[in-house]
Amino acid sequence: MSPRETERILAFDREHIWHPYAPIPATVPVHPVVSAKGVRLTLADGTELIDGMSSWWAAVHGYGHPELDAAVTGQLGRMAHVMFGGLTHPPAVRLAERLVEITPEPLTKVFFADSGSVAVEVAIKMAMQYWRSQGRPERHRLLTVRGGYHGDTFGDMAVCDPVNGMHHLFSDVLARHVFAPPPPLGYSAEPDRAYLDELSRLAAAHAHELAGIIVEPIVQGAGGMRFYAPEYLRALRDIADEHGLLLVLDEIATGFGRTGELWGCDHAEVAPDIMCLGKALTGGYMTMAVTLCTDRVAHGITSGEAGVLMHGPTYMANPLAAAVASASIDLLMSRDWRDEVDTIEAILSSGLGGAAELPGVADVRVLGAIGVVEAREPVDVPAVQKLAMDHGVWLRPFGKLIYAMPPYVCTEDEVDHIAAAMWAIAESL
């Protein structure tokens, strides 16, 4: 792309196109990508950057993988899309079979959604419609924890952190749910008995009006990149069972091995009643998400007044997305993904460990293929991104957080580069 065409595109983009959580006209630069291959992004000026973000945690196999390319082009030769109302097709059935096979055993029913946010909306509706079908419409609230993030649509915003999250502007029009304090920080930390008691107390006080509990298992993502001990997740499963609540786990960011286990809930050896998947589901190729539930939930919903689950997206079970999702799962399970993630964890831990002693750094934490440097003050995003790019790495910090979620197929040298960029940023704070 010529410099003149690049400037034209950037000028139009700046004046006319919304970017995530950004104003119009744009006040910070965006960087035009013209191709992506392996784990590298190529910019219009020829600059190559290692993608330390996996395109917001989705491109776990990198870009342009021949098996995923073949899945898309092969399916394109048959059909790109067909409505799912009254019809079905082999890619959807095969993907559902695969998901039922690899997710926790109680999850047997599959709802295909368009995006992670929609998958969470569907999960919330499942929980509420379940209780309405049982003749208990008063059980319409959810218990969750501060520090969480579940998406940007209205149902999702209502269960995100109401104070430090990104949706406080809408707090007066959102549904009112029940919030516990954030889980104490530290995957390996000893459980805080007082915190466990507080969870039990809140659940007992509101059990008569609660439909369920919704959390991100083990890792809270965009709400703060916080890791917590598996004991708290086990406690939430026990609390849900004690009061007959549905446990909803948002595995959109944690699923498909990101935390070192296939599912975040595997760390605690628990299974949810409803699970949301997305992001890495299609290997970053197509937008698609899934909400799975148990027989109990599905039969409870369909035995009620409506007789059906009241949701149905236009692009539900899109054949292209379903085909590449199955191929992505097959590819993941055919490799030693656990060793890949363990290697990333070891390199990030080694490369970032000393950064905790730097004056501008509040904390450093690593779990699976996730590395986080938490600054003491909010960072200057354009300056931080420029420094990362000077080191040949693409990162997307937010708030006080500089973090990386590399593609699993990164070489050791590429992960070293990512850690070095994060270290340089930490030194600059």
CATH-defined superfamily of the largest domain: Type I PLP-dependent aspartate aminotransferase-like (Major domain)
Largest sheet: 7 strands, mixed
Give the low-pLDDT segments. Answer: none
Strand order of the largest sheet: 4-12-11-10-7-5-6
Per CATH, what is the topology of the largest domain? Aspartate Aminotransferase, domain 2
The appropriate CATH architecture of the largest domain is 3-Layer(aba) Sandwich
Mean pLDDT, all residues: 96
Number of helices: 13
Cofactor: pyridoxal 5'-phosphate
Main location: cytoplasm
Catalytic activity: (8S)-8-amino-7-oxononanoate + S-adenosyl-L-methionine = S-adenosyl-4-methylsulfanyl-2-oxobutanoate + (7R,8S)-7,8-diammoniononanoate
Binding site for substrate: 56, 149, 279, 312, 396
Outline the structure in words.
- With 429 residues, this protein is of the alpha/beta class.
- It folds into 2 domains: 31-64 and 336-428, Aspartate Aminotransferase, domain 1; 69-334, Type I PLP-dependent aspartate aminotransferase-like (Major domain) (Aspartate Aminotransferase, domain 2).
- Helix content is 37%, strand content 17%.
- The protein has 13 helices and 16 strands.
- It has helices at 3-16, 54-57, 66-76, 90-102, 116-133, 154-157, 193-206, 230-243, 295-302, 319-334, 337-352, 381-390, 412-428, and strands at residues 33-37, 40-43, 48-51, 107-113, 141-145, 178-180, 210-215, 219-220, 226-227, 246-250, 274-277, 289-294, 361-367, 370-375, 393-394, 401-404.
- A 7-stranded mixed beta sheet has the order 4-12-11-10-7-5-6, sandwiched between helices. It has a 4-stranded mixed beta sheet with strand order 1-2-3-15.
- Strand 13 and strand 14 (370-375) form a beta hairpin.
- Helix 12 crosses helix 13.
- The longest helix is centred in the first third of the chain and has 18 residues, at 116-133.
